[in-house]
Design brief:
Elements lengths: L5 H10 L6 H8 L1 H12 L3 E4 L9 E5 L6 H19 L2 H21 L21 H22 E2 L2 H20 L10 H24 L1 E2 L1
Antiparallel strand pairs: 1-2, 3-4
Helix pairs in contact: 1-2, 1-6, 2-5, 2-8, 3-8, 4-5, 7-8
Length: 216
């Protein structure tokens, strides 16, 4: 799951005007992956490339005990919700932000092979939809653009910023699916940096979209 994680951000922002702004929710939706790539660069968590490990994704995510355990995700969710509460003093907004963070683990559960954990140790969980592209690809696109459509229906504003964000996300997803795969044993740092840059670009565009749209 890549752009599909942002479906939770679109849906949460559409649900209520008290929800955090779209840019904030974009950070929330990918927060544990922001942390994972930073931890990879710092040597705290680890991954490697194993072509063929799943049909769609060559990443062997063999050490994600802090970011992609359910307990770890709950901690990230609670911390992010607390930060939102400090800035907004709105418990509803804080709860929505925390739920969007936690949605990451639940969406990953659908697509990952069994490499997710409850507390960082076995047993491992994952339904493995990355091995079934004809299911995963329409599911990811449907979640993302269905939530974006609902957001557009619930808000008013110029369509161009939202269209640009949608096209940029589609281009990112296309590169993720169809770009040249890394070779076995390739360095992981460039992938981590590329992921962080992609998240930053999408979040900046989401912030822009959020400044142009208001709830009806």
């Amino acid at each position: 799951m890549f752009i599909g994680h942002w479906s939770a951000a679109f849906a949460a922002r559409a649900a209520s005007d008290r929800s955090p702004k779209l840019g904030t929710l974009f950070v929330a939706a990918q927060l544990v992956d922001w942390a994972f790539f930073i931890f990879v660069l710092l040597g705290i968590e680890h991954m490697r490339f194993v072509p063929g490990i799943t049909a769609m994704n060559p990443m062997d995510l063999y050490d994600m005990r802090f970011t992609h355990s359910l307990i770890g995700s709950c901690i990230f969710a609670g911390a992010f919700g607390a930060i939102v509460w400090v800035f907004t003093r709105d418990r509803f907004a804080a709860l929505i932000a925390a739920m969007v963070v936690l949605s990451h683990w639940l969406l990953d559960l659908l697509v990952h092979r069994p490499d997710l954990t409850i507390d960082g140790a076995p047993p491992m969980f994952g339904f493995g939809l990355w091995n079934y592209p004809w299911i995963e690809m329409p599911l990811e696109l449907g979640l993302t653009y269905g939530a974006m459509w609902w957001n557009a229906r619930r808000t008013d504003g110029p369509p161009l910023p939202l269209v640009i964000l949608g096209l940029v996300m589609l281009a990112m997803q296309a590169f993720n699916w169809f770009g040249p795969p890394p070779e076995a044993g390739a360095a992981v740092a460039p992938m981590a940096v590329l992921g962080l840059v992609g998240y930053a670009v999408a979040t900046a565009l989401a912030w822009w979209v959020g400044t142009t749209r208001r709830h009806r």
